[in-house]
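Colleagues,

Please find the record for the three-part complex below.
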Amino acid sequence: MNDQLVLNLACVIFLLPLACFALMAVFHERIPRHGDWLATTALGVTLACAIAIFVHAAMTGRNLLVNVTFDWLPLGMTNMLKGGILVDRLTAVMLVVVTLVSFLVHLFSVGYMAGDVRYGRYYCGLLLFTTSMLGLVLANNLIYLYIFWELVGLSSYLLIGHWFEKKSASDAAIKAFITTRLGDVGMFIGLMICYWKVGSLQYADLFAAVQNGVLSGQGFAGYDWQTLAGLGIFFGAMGKSAQFPLHVWLPDAMEGPTPVSALIHAATMVAAGVYLTGRLLPFFSPPTLIFIAYIGGITAIFAATIALVQDDIKKVLAYSTVSQLGYMIMALGVGGYVSGLFHLTTHAMFKACLFLGSGAVIHAMHHEQSMSQYGGLRHKMPWTATFYIMATLALCGVPPFAGFWSKDLILGDTLAFTMQHGHWFLVVAGFGTAFLTAFYMTRQVFLTFFGAPRNEHKFEHAHEVAWQMLLPLVILGTLSLVGGLGGWFEKYNPKLDGITQIKAIAEAGYQSPLVATAVAAAHQVAAAAHEGAEGAGEHNPVVAQAHHTAMVLSIVLAFAGIGLGVLMYRERKNGKALLNPDALARAFRPVYVLLWNKYFFDEIYNAVFVETTHIAARVCAVFDRLVIDSVVNFAGLMGKVGAFVVDMLDRLVVDGLMVNGSARAAGFMGNELSYAQTGRVRQYLLLMVLGILALSGVVLVLIK
Amino acid sequence: MNELVNSWGLNPAIPVGLNAYLLVAAILFVLGLIACMARRNAIGILIGVELIINAAIINFMAFWRFGGSQTDGSGALVGPLFGVFLILLAACEAAVALAILLSLYFNFGTIEVDSIHQMER
Amino acid sequence: MDKMLLTLITFLPLAGMVAVLLAPGKAHNLIRGIAVVTSGVVFALTCWLWWVFDPTALASHGYDARTWIEIPWINSFHVYYRFGVDGLSTLLIVMTGFLSFLATFVGFSVKKQVKGFYALYMLLMTGMFGVFMALDFFLFYVFWELMLLPMYFLIGIWGGPRKEYAAIKFFIYTLLGSVLILLVMIAYYFQVAADPKTADFAFNIPWLVANQPFHGASPAFKHLLFWGLFIGFAIKVPIFPFHTWLPDAHVEAPTAISVILAGVLLKMGGYGILRFNYPLLPEVGSTDWVMWFLAVLGVVNIIYGAFCALGQTDFKRLVAYSSVSHMGYVLLGVAVLKEEGVNGAIFQMFAHGLSSAMMFMLVGVLYDRAHHREIARFGGIATQMPVYFGLAVVGFFASLGLPAMVGFIGEISVFLGAFKYSMPLTAFATLGMLLTAGYILWTMQRVYMGNPKPQYAEFPDANKWELISLVPLAATCILFGVLPALAMNIYLPSTQLFLKMFAQ
């Protein structure tokens, strides 16, 4: 297998779902079964191609397989935005993750969405999403990434709003699109900085530019351009990966069908932000990396606390996703390239399994999502329960499940970073989240599958799901068990060109005016990243020690969390748990209310952003009509007034006084003088004579 | 004074002068005028008009006789011609006027001019 | 044949008008057939022009030599019948041909006085093509006014409830602009015609651009000329604060005319600015404060238009304000005088021509069924009319600037150019991307989503005539979004010539 074949396979991977989408978008009404078999088969083929690339990459010793560039958007005679395809090992992993989960979700949906009103359109949405996500992963430049980035946003919008008859669904769809687009605006600004300074958006050019110091010029507010561009781009990742404070859309996105939540809002699309951050890791400057680490840490612990008290089974998983994404981002922020992306991979497996499992439960319980209505379901759905619990153990970080390997790496990297230069918050957040995660997942499992059924009626009708829905659970559950074995990822991704570049920059005495510690941090980031890449820090005793400590601590905390969950939610013979969660909630009522309401973020954003925008819009609309249009109408009115004045002048003075006036004067005179017309001839004669006499008299007098 | 009286033709020794004719004409004219102004009867007014015309004829003849006839013959017969013309005119006028009067009489039943004042406002 | 091409494109619609006038007034289908055939042939001719036009081989005056035509018309005033195209006008001419062909089908929903409608419509087409081709100032002005007249009647007779107000407002506003253009034209005439040696070039646009007759004039006078032209064209674009005729005219006009109005007429403002305003007075256009002022004005257009759109309750008004917002990109792109910006501005004109035309058609489809445009009274249309909804998604997202659709290309090019000029201003302008998403999505939610309402239950899905006009637009919206180079390559050399004038 040569690289040309890899390129062809990559093209097939992108074009096959696209062609399938185009076909189904137009004809899905006419294809039998609305084309679900077509979409699923296409995805199966795509998955096979992706696995072929994955295996090929593992067998050749090389990281970079394909990097093809072609002209796309001419911005001028010489400026060209180029498109391109990149296949390296990271891409290969992402391709497998995306196609695998997508294929399984397609399969799962055959059962889950059966009889849906817009069955064909649903598959179109899935295909559009898969195509865009694959395009995103295959891009070798930021502009293509941005394009597919927005397109996955579109498909996410369409699929969240799949049941758009529900107001809450269409609201959630809009919220998701707008919130992520807010991030995208930041990302676009980052892109513009890159284009302006570098003149290209190819990853390779950007890394070269960082190395050459093209972006080191003074930018804004004391930050250099590299930091600003990095922050902008990371802002996009924050939106897509639902990082604090742009996390609000993800829980609402659970309005969409559950397989969609599994595919888009757990396994792949939300991980795109992590992918982007990882892909561009060498591009981020030290201040940006610190920022990234903090955002990740805050998100991780913040979302985990909310997940503690939620009742909706999907909401718990949604906040868990936010929290885990925060984990990955934090790992990348401290330079843990391998750990962050490794966790992305394992998380995709077990979280997709959890979501599909919850989908199976919801399906079995007639679309009841509240955990307070569940209970005892393991008797009805043993297979689902088994694989759900396996995925849960993976998420909790119990060895040897997949999550343990990646989470342990993250915690180790964080601890190593912190031991060397402070930022203790990150460690606290990391280990705290590990504990909280174990707790709330245990709570969920016990509320759902154990204890006595709390809604007898629905429990009676619950049943194990069909094979199309069970098979994905089996596959993903198995992968949750074996998906992280031996930390294969770090061996698969041993050499990372970018990481060495960071090191080079750090060693070149990179100067940043922002944080005094930044330079030092950069060294350490590079070191930690390097060590991580080399494999758990064999060479650096501090790092090695950190990883050992982290491993022990994380196992302890995972079991502690599970233990507390069991204590609080495992019902004993008398139907009561050892610790009463309700009593606890009463005791810490303010905290409970705060968490139950998700720290009131929705309310605050609504008041601060949404309402003000609407008010501004209304003000603008009214201003436009009342002021600007009034000026126009006033000008028109002034014209009318002027015309009226002139008209009056014309009618009164010119016509009235002069033309009609003279006529009327003549008439008046005639009228008045007509009294002299008596009709008596003799009178006229007399007057004539008298007149002549008077005139004669005058003449005589004058002559005299 | 004498000259004046003489010119009136009262002195037989002196030939009758222009003034005498003019005096007669003036008297006639005034009489006609008064008739026109004073009479209500249309016939009376018509007679007054005739008198005025006659006064004019006399004046024509007198002026012709006492200076109008030039020695070079250019003024020959101008006065009598005018006189004849005016007599004709008077005749015509009388005919027309009588016809109008007749018509008036048919329409209004009277020829009292003061009773006929339709034009008055 | 190439020599006759431009003339044919311009005056073939006039022949169509005569044919329509000769047809019996009751034979509606015959009249519609004539209109479709005429506009179809014209569209084919414009495609031929696209094919014939070679952007890499422009003559020394910057226009295509093969299609250039120059015949004396009014000798005593040095007026010539002078037609020519460069990349910019070719693109807009093809777009005009395309849109006027599609709008002919949209016009099928006009039921009263079909004959008069299509006769005026054909006359309008002649005016539009003439404007984009005339390179004689006088001739340009003639076509500019010629296009006004049928538009006035088309709005005033076939319009909505407040059609008289809208038609008069449109007419007077545009006439005000034309008067300013006329004054500048006269100024040029007297300047050039005073010298017998140059008198023959008095209205010759390429000559005026190349020789700059007012080069030595006082800056104040040059500013006077510049702003006279600018206001004249800005009214047409429309640029804040001269935009208020647009919502009224759009809302009252029949759908086919809204399509033409938004798709083509607004582009004439942008075309005028690119063809006359800047090239005739490059010194003014590249003055620091003028660049700043116009760039800010462009951003104001973007943001203010978007806010206004967000605040509307009338569907068509909302779309009209979105036009205000989108045309702000054009001004921003031109004002910064960067290659990316100008190219982006031209593409944005093209993109807006496609996407706004499609949006007006989509609104029109709904209006033909519901006979009202209150956003709040709609809801659940997507369930009733799935095919129509699918097309609406394409149209609205193209307008939103979603990547892989036309709107995106124009936006990013303009922003990339503007960013080189001013970072804070452009960063602020990106807020427009967000607001656009806001009003589009919110509108789609209120109109198309939600539970189907019983009063709209019997609405039929889009019929074949509506599909004939909507599907090609949807296809082009995507095609040129995926392969923007198809459209961009045609005018890149022309843009470069344009920008050479400003090289300090």
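The longest helix of chain C spans residues 339-370.

Comments are welcome before we finalize the supplementary table.
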